[in-house]
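### Sample
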Amino acid sequence: MAVGDSALSSPMGPPACEKDAKALRFIEEMTRNADVVQETVLAEILSRNAETEYLRRFKLNGGTDRAAFKSKIPMIKYEDLQPEIQRIANGDRSPILSAHPISEFLTSSGTSAGERKLMPTIKEELNRRQLLYSLLMPVMNLYVPGLDKGKGLYFLFIKSETKTPGGLLARPVLTSYYKSDHFKTRPYDPYNVYTSPNEAILCPNSFQSMYSQMLCGLLERKQVLRVGAVFASGLLRAIRFLQLNWAQLAHDIRTGTLNPKVTDPSLKNCMTRTLKPDPVLADFVDSECSKDNWEGIITRIWPNTKYLDVIVTGAMAQYIPTLDYYSGGLPQACTMYASSECYFGLNLNPMCKPAEVSYTIMPNMAYFEFLPHEPNSTGLTQNSPPELVDLADVEVGKEYELVITTYAGLYRYRVGDVLRVTGFHNSAPQFHFVRRKNVLLSIDSDKTDEAELQNAVCNASRVLSEFGMSVAEYTSYADTTTIPGHYVIYFELLMKDSAELPCESVLSRCCLAMEESLNSVYRQGRVSDNSIGPLEIRVVKNGTFEEFMDYAISRGASINQYKVPRCVSFTPIMELLDSRVVSSHFSPSLPHWTPERRC
Ligand code: AMP
């Protein structure tokens, strides 16, 4: 097939180069043969892992076909695998889940019992992730020409890693990827040049890393054609960082000297080589950043930016208006859909509006099944295995929960994401990300569910009980108008002698008690990543929640079945609650967090 023959094309024209054409042909081949590819993937996973303890336990007897697999292997959640994961973490190297050695654990932002889930992975998964990454720019180049004429300003970070008792590394999937040779020694690709040097991305100190990445972005501001981070919250954090540090950045640019806070030897060395005095640029940074109005700051500083490359689907949709504000409405491209367990797929129409984003799951990444999603159903009928639908058989318009079987040894594992089928590319379905199950509050990668919030409120109530008070009602809200965003909890209090309201110190203790009760991803966001601001309690007047109920009933809620929503986002409700606030209180200090695992 010649360049331009791909069925994946856009109004902008044919593939940008032969390498892109090859990638696009690969997408076509995989999506045209989705079902066959899936069958092959399953057979490959089952045959190579036939002798694992897990598959033997279910008496698959070497079977590699779908029928045997579906009738014998149960659908599971993380908690079902906990004993196996624990053994691997403790150093058992026998083939428990995978015939290939587990190379490390990837720490998911999903938690179990308050701690990050540990996802086993094997070396070759890096190739699979790399393959998916390699498809992103060829697709983007179909829609945005000329990306080889400049650079991408991407704010990318590594996070702390730990070792399990058995000596395996445990770290986030992106940390694993950025530290791999796949990333560090990637071949030069004119369509994928970053302003951030590897030394900055790989610097473990988040301030030094961000500072240097921002400095490089400013130094090359005219070359920048796209600005991005993994998630929208990360890009907004970078904007906030610029707001707080532009004067020092401008000083460094003016003098050609580096902020002494950047002490990491290899980063310092690299940045010192790059910096040259540039008073004109320093004047520009000073004049733009000292203005009160930061609307459109991204395009003012980086005037050639064609789009923002950030995920704004799912929980990140709450940041779309703020990104619009700072970027003057630049397109927001959501390019891929992935997790620690497995990278799933990509958006074949990345310049579409955020609300229209659909991800095409690549059938070569893992074996995918879909549990028809019925709210309030566990998906299990008594004694009969769940009816899971294959990738090629899902129906447009229906919602499903994603279930995966991976090369690394997860079998029929529920990811927890609910997806809706929007259409097909060839025979591969495309999915709108609907939501992650059981997530009430999220600011960054934190995910707080109803039970965790309830537990946190109980602990706050315990503090109040010392003063003859308790929490009568509560609800919550993810406030993203601040950067970083923060959790707001509305409390209606029950006081024994309806005398005085509790004092500031008691309620700020409640804020901290709540933060201490939230999961480790939340606390890491507060302590280490600075991606979540202090939790706020807003005390509302007595009777507010009754008004809240009246309002809900006036809009059609049933009186008998009415339950206080534990999270709110609907503007009229927020207005009602905020108009009844009698006092507001913030966490006075950081909760406890250490990277050590108790595994
Ligand atoms: P983690 O395991 O911490 O890497 O988190 C993976 C989860 O992040 C997925 O299961 C989704 O819930 C969410 N996620 C990843 N990519 C996207 C995306 N493009 N849009 C919406 N949510 C996403």
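The radius of gyration is 25 Å. This sample (Indole-3-acetic acid-amido synthetase) is used throughout the tutorial notebook.
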